[in-house]
Specification:
The complex is a heterodimer of chains A (80) and B (394). Chain A has 80 residues and is mainly α. Chain A is 45% helix and 0% strand. Chain A has helices at residues 3-26, 49-60. Chain A starts with a helix and ends in a 20-residue tail after the last helix. Chain B contains 2 helices and 20 strands. Helix content of chain B is 4%, strand content 61%. Classes of the chains: A mainly alpha (80), B mainly beta (394). Chains A and B meet through helix 1 and helix 2 of A and strand 1, strand 4, strand 5, strand 8 and strand 9 of B.
């Protein structure tokens, strides 16, 4: 029962540690402006504030542990 | 100094003359590249989302006296967003969401001060409306300040929101640091067990967020963030109830303070076949003994120049708050909740989206977007969400 959860959280921990290391090491590298075409592709854009809001509200009103990602975790609505 | 004063005035009054953003003593972009319009619209869009929820929870009175009551509800959410550039430095954003809710519990109140009927009025409607305004000032090539104010209103509830964000980019925009503070003040009616009003209650939520993003390669972006939220005041909605071990029910009673921590790591990778993969892990911990882990994955694919599709999956696991109970003994613990949202559970969300972008001759790019999410929990609660957006990006 707990084996798959343990594996899941161990994988998550590895993901976090690896990601932080990659982020810190990546801080040494500079990607020139003319090599950033991929970030202009529509699939890489993450600027739909209305979609982000509806997802945030779906979770913050139904889970005890949602929120806190750039906004307050709770408050602002009687549904929370 | 002059631009800082203009930013302050604009945050208060919503608008300043374009000339206020002009710097003296140096050439502006407009002087070098040619005159741009003083005011231009960047984005105008609307999004309509329909939620249909079914499930049962011990906090609801719409059911057996000591059993799980209905959590069935429907929500129609309409949002509008308008983004406008003023001069070279200022960006205005106005956002108006309206939620129309049929609720199992929220209307268990003495509407118009008549005698309440907490079960038969459970399908009544409640409307929530909000307006938020943000002003961003690009102070220099690397620094942006954003201030925001908002107001939220619904039947028994008023709320005021304030925010301030500082964002700075480094190393030729390879890295970005953001620091944001949010303050929410809630003022609402409190209700007794039978649904009658027992005066006003309030709560304050103060939040600080730190974020850092970094380009790892020409196709990879990583971001880490941490947020802490301090909540004080009446943290219950006041109409939730708890079954008692001796039979009957009592009002939910929560501690009057809560400190909540959330940290996340996200990776975004461009795929050579015009696709993108996003992965995100989030860890949460608070002083009500809730620990949670959330994993999210999203795959996007550009099928044609005008068509983009996506699929997403989210897994969330949380532990219950330390005072969660479905057979409370008030003499043993001052705090008790049976709110299923505060219980130990895991949830999953499956989602899909399709977006169409159509360039027009005079109105920029017309975009249409459709999405569907299926959210389901280990306690059998489920939510289906259909969402539709349309607008113009200039």
């Amino acid at each position: 029962m707990f084996e798959w959860k343990t594996k899941l959280f161990a994988s998550a921990a590895l993901f976090v540690v690896g990601g932080v290391q990659a982020t810190l090491l990546g801080g040494c590298a500079v990607v020139p402006q003319n090599h950033r075409a991929a970030f202009a592709e529509p699939v890489m854009r993450d600027d739909d504030a209305l979609d982000a809001h509806r997802k945030r509200k779906l979770y913050t009103t139904r889970e005890a542990a949602a929120g806190g990602d750039g906004k307050t975790a709770g408050g602002g609505c009687s549904c929370q | 100094m002059r631009r800082r004063a203009a930013f302050t005035l604009a945050l208060v009054f919503g608008f300043v003359p374009a000339a206020a953003s002009a710097e003296g003593g140096s050439f502006s972009d407009a002087e070098v590249l040619g005159q741009k319009p003083a005011v231009r619209v960047d984005l105008a869009q609307t999004r309509v989302s329909a939620y249909e929820q079914d499930g049962r929870g011990y906090q609801s009175q719409a059911g057996p006296l000591n059993g799980r009551g209905s959590e069935k509800l429907q929500v129609l959410q309409v949002q509008g967003e308008f983004v406008m550039q003023q001069g070279e430095h200022l960006t205005h954003r106005v956002w108006v969401p309206v939620d129309l809710v049929t609720s199992a519990s929220a209307n268990a109140i003495d509407k118009y001060y008549s005698k309440p009927d907490v079960v038969s009025s459970a399908s009544a409607q409640n409307m929530a409306q909000e307006v938020e305004y943000e002003l961003s000032d690009r102070a220099d090539a690397n620094t942006t300040w954003t201030g925001g104010v908002g107001f939220h209103h619904e039947e028994p509830f008023l709320s005021w929101l304030y925010s301030l964000e500082y964002r700075r980019s480094f190393a030729e925009d390879n890295a970005t640091l953001s620091i944001a503070a949010n303050q929410v003040l809630d003022w609402f009616d409190a209700f007794a067990l039978g649904g009658s009003r027992r005066g006003r209650a309030s709560r304050a939520s103060s939040n600080l967020n730190l974020g850092f993003s970094q380009l790892l390669s020409p196709t990879t972006l990583a971001a880490v963030s941490y947020g802490v939220t301090l909540q004080r005041g009446e943290l219950s909605n006041t109409w939730n109830t708890v079954p008692l071990a001796a039979g009957g029910r009592e009002s939910e009673n929560l501690p009057r303070e809560r400190v909540r921590h959330a940290a996340s790591l996200a990776l975004q990778q461009y795929l050579p076949w015009r696709g993108a993969l996003r992965l995100r892990y989030r860890f949460y911990r608070d002083d009500w003994d809730v620990t949670a882990h959330t994993l999210e994955a999203e795959l996007r694919q550009r099928v044609a120049d005008w068509l983009l599709v996506g699929a997403s999956y989210r897994y969330h696991h949380q532990a219950a708050v330390s005072f969660f109970t479905i057979d409370a003994v008030p003499a043993l613990s001052p705090y008790a909740t049976a709110d299923s949202d505060l219980g130990g559970l895991f949830t999953q969300t499956l989602g899909g989206t399709a977006s169409v972008n159509l360039p027009t001759a005079r109105l920029g790019t017309l975009f249409l977007s459709f999405g569907f999410d299926h959210y389901f929990r280990s306690d059998k609660l489920r939510v289906n969400v259909a969402t539709w957006a349309t607008g113009f990006r200039y």
